[in-house]
Amino acid sequence: MKIRQSLLFATAALALTTAGMQPSFADTADKRIALSNNYAGNSWRQAMLNSWGKNADQAVKDGVVAAGDAFTTAENQATEQAAQIQNLILQGYDAIVINAASPTALNGAVKEACDAGIVVVSFDGVVTEPCAWRIAVNFKKMGEIQVDYLSGRLPDGGDLLEIRGLAGVFVDDEIHSGIEAGVANHDKFKIAGSVHGEWTQTVAQKAVAGILPSMPEIVAVVTQGGDGYGAAQAFAAAGRPTPIIIMGNRHDELTWWKEQKDANGYETMSVSIAPGVSTLAFWVAQQILDGQDVPKDLIVPFLQIDQADLEDGLANTEPGGVSNVEYSLDDAKAYLESVN
Amino acid sequence: MNGLRFFASARFWRGALPALSLTFVLVGVFWLQPRAMSYFGLNLLFNLAVPIALATIAQMFVIAVNDLDLSIGSFVSLVACIGATWLRDTPLLGIAALLGCVAVYAALGALIYIRQLPSIVVTLGMSFVWSGCAVLLLPTPGGSAPDWIRTLVSYKPSYVPMPLLAAVALGLVVHFGLMRTSWGVLMRGVGGNEKAITRAGWSVLKLKMVMYALTAVFGILAGLTLVGLATSADANIALRYTLLSIAGVILGGGEFVGGRISPVGAVLGAMTLTLTASFLSFLRISPDWQIGAQGAVLIIVLALRAIVNRLEARR
After folding, report:
1. Do A100 and A10 share a structural domain?
2. Residue B70: CATH number of its domain
């Protein structure tokens, strides 16, 4: 008890000194935010952690918060992340931002954090525990808007080729159901075939090359991101006309699109989630700590690149990476106002 | 004089090593994070260690008869899924399913013994069966733990945190059963010298079936505790437990062969493993190094054990 009291005292004293030293524009200057992340093994996650790190360092430097540390579990397992969250509770963080390994298996640990008075914000991989905030990605919508776009471009409809992700994964299921819903809305389209591209260009290229000989004329390819460039290569290798291929904001995809656009005026669109959504989660947590009223369920806006913004999009994408948008405190406030 | 010699003996050090490792890591955690030194802190540090300790004990029963269970992680996941679905909605069906699991485990013990199959192969195969059943039962993560399990695992006794009480009780009960009763001697004997047991007129088949059934019972306890703590299930919730449980048994002073096991040590080993992970994260070691660091801890403890064993052999 004594230790806890003196700790409290120490944090209070620290808060006083920091508040005295620089003009803090929020009452969160003494608050500490942690990121609990379950996986760091692909370019999207790396970009996400990078965005978080840059943003949190700046926020600490500006005196908006006292800490913004990122923790990644050694293995992508729910039990491990639950233990990690419990450790973060012990370390006395005021808010924990989570990209969860499982939507449900962390609920116990999340509840414990809430009971300890900690603000929990989950994003991308969200948790179902009601006391936590959720910044979810509407993957279903991401599938639907692809077909909506195609419907505008191709009034006569036709046969589509669908490239799916990894079988049995939640994201793949959701995007696929969105595409199905889109096709149901626009019944001039028909899905002639579907392959699993595993969100990887090389796998997608092989899979598409394998199914193409048995396909009728394909007017467009609906995708999940990370597979558009491979599909384009497969169509070129088979000597077939290039259909409208929806892209997924990867650097190689945008580069290919730009080349085609310059060569023959090729038109398409590209859609994915910006890894910088971690910075949105950071600011949402900060705003909640600041006492703002934030709805529990938020939806992340997509990052959609249209024909007109291709050059800008390409410029904002690192080679080998994914197009990114990072949120500042003002962006996050504007976003929250728009949903409130 | 006699007492002194005991303290210098290899046997003493062998038994004390797991307790010493745990104390060592615990002191480290308290030093890094004084907040952990409270009722609330100990509860958080150890509550996820309880299902791991139960799974470790389950694994220990199999290791006691010189076998290895590579399916315990997926089995615990399946139990968690049953717990979050059938056991809540249709308790009778749930209980029947869990009893069925025990029967399957006993049958596996019989199969492995009668056909003289390598347990690693059989249980590795079974791990896919359990995983498949779990996915069929709960295709997307969800379900919710029955209220009575929730109440049981979140019970907060005064003075001593529940996880510590549970760990002590678990260690003592299994220790008494396996190390202090004649049945226990028989069961360990299957691992120690199967032929001697057969010659003495006991059925090794039955003993193996009992040991495998006990594995299932403790695996079920682990799964139900886990689902109680997590509040809902996921078909992949406990895959880590397979390796953790084996490491826990070995860390706690058990051997892969010879029926040499230590129930108290196994519980301590499981707690040490859980605590090591917390310790490393309090140290803020980058996740890329954490698995390596965890492995290093294991190697250090095993190296110390090897020294103790060598001392033993010299006598």
Report:
1. yes
2. 1.10.3470
Q: Measure in Å the smallest separation between the Cα of B259 and chain A Cα atoms.
A: 30
Position A253 in a domain: no
Together in a domain, A92 and A26: yes
Per-residue model confidence as pLDDT tens digits over B253-307: 888 888 889 999 999 999 998 898 888 888 888 777 877 887 888 888 888 888 8
DSSP letter string, A89-155: HHTT-SEEEEE-S-TTTTHHHHHHHHHTT-EEEEESS----TTSEEEEE-HHHHHHHHHHHHHHH-T
Kindly tell me if the per-residue pLDDT of B194 is higher than 70.
yes
- Tens of pLDDT, residue by residue over A235-284, are 999 999 999 999 999 888 999 999 999 999 999 999 988 889 999 999 99
Q: Where are the beta strands (DSSP E) in chain A?
A: 32-37, 67-72, 95-99, 119-123, 133-137, 158-164, 189-196, 218-222, 244-245, 270-272, 297-300, 303-305
User: A62: Cβ–Cβ under 8 A, 6 or more apart, which residues?
Assistant: none
**Chain A positions in Cβ-Cβ contact with residue B294 (cut-off 8 Å):** 74
Q: Which residues pair with A133 in a beta bridge?
A: A121
The C-alpha atoms of residue B128 and residue B124 are separated, in whole angstroms, by 7
How many domains are contained in chain A?
2
Overall number of domains in chain B: 1
Please check whether residues A132 and A278 belong to one and the same domain: yes
Question: Are A219 and A283 within one domain?
Answer: no
CB nearest to B287's CB, from A74, A78, A83: A74
Q: Which of A92, A99, A48, A47 is nearest to A66 (CA)?
A: A92
- A133 and A163 in a single domain? The answer is no
| CATH code for the domain in which residue A281 is found | 3.40.50.2300
The answer to whether residue B141 is domain-embedded is yes
By Cβ distance, the residue of B35, B238, B291 closest to A92 is B35
